[in-house]
Amino acid sequence: MTQMKYQLLGKSGLKVSELCLGTMGFGTAAGWGADLKSSFEIMDKFAEAGGNFVDTANIYKLGESESIIGKYFANQQVDRDYFVLATKYSLKDNESNPNASGNNRKNLMRSVEGSLKRLDTDFIDLLYLHIWDDLTPIEEVMRALDDLIRQGKVNYIAISDTPAWVVAKGNTYAELMGWSQFAALQVEYSLLQRTPERELIPMAKHFGLSLLPWAPLAGGALTGKYLKGDPGRIKPESKRLNAESIQITKEVLDIADKYGVPASSVALAWVRQQYNKCIPIVGATKSSQLLENIGSLALNLEPAFMQRLNAASQIDLGFPLEFFQEAGVQKNNFGGFYDRIIRRS
Fold this sequence. Notes:
alpha/beta; TIM Barrel; 8-stranded parallel β-sheet; two-stranded antiparallel sheet; 12 helices; oxidoreductase activity; oxidoreductase; NAD(P)_OxRdtase_dom_sf; AKR_Detox_Biosynth; NADP_OxRdtase_dom
């Protein structure tokens, strides 16, 4: 089995494995997923390969995912301190309480207390704001998150599914106030979803944030299984199955065939090679799926294949990034840039 290496999370000294185990599939409360025994087996295999970074959320399987992880720590008598456990707050988990959702301080404190009980632990290693609510002031969020760190209930903080300007404002405000800053950014990112390259990834690089892509295999579309007739759980009208996505997937399959590896290895290698602080989140409901994903770490795509994949999946970067490229700003050609401005004026 491939043994994982470690990297530092963001600008912190926290050492995390080069793949993060996504546990949204732990539990069967939503009618699908891994049962308790299968979930324990996946955790075991992940740890045996050197994996220590585990991702969950208060809302996953109505809390069952967190509860399974808590039972794993208790029943298997594993070293809790070996694992870097990440969970999230924000999404609604209670229909009777108007403050049982959102980014506000009240929901944050309530959610963390619930997560600590389900996870059967005294602390959360990494706490994410799950999704931006466009209501709560970011100043309120940063102060509340810092309070949790000072209380010893949370070690590090991160943010997910949020506009780049909000993340930037939050980290800048925290730096000004001497509070804890975000160490990581979680976004959907894959060969079929490259729009984070417009604002989110440049912002993450500027602040030294680790990037944790969710759905790096695009819900399994990039494995090619849907092209082979596997109905799976993806909707037929999904953008992951449109003509452009199918063509990109075929490129992945062709390159995988040349290397003699699963298509998932090529898709994950592409994501990892986009940014040196990138840690893909790989979900699994079977240990065989996890082992295949871990095997991707042995693959390093040659520049020619990276170029093929980039060309097949390229997106419109929009203004101002495309304007910068045309003007030569990325090559430090500022003379050409100003010449063009003069001509346009």
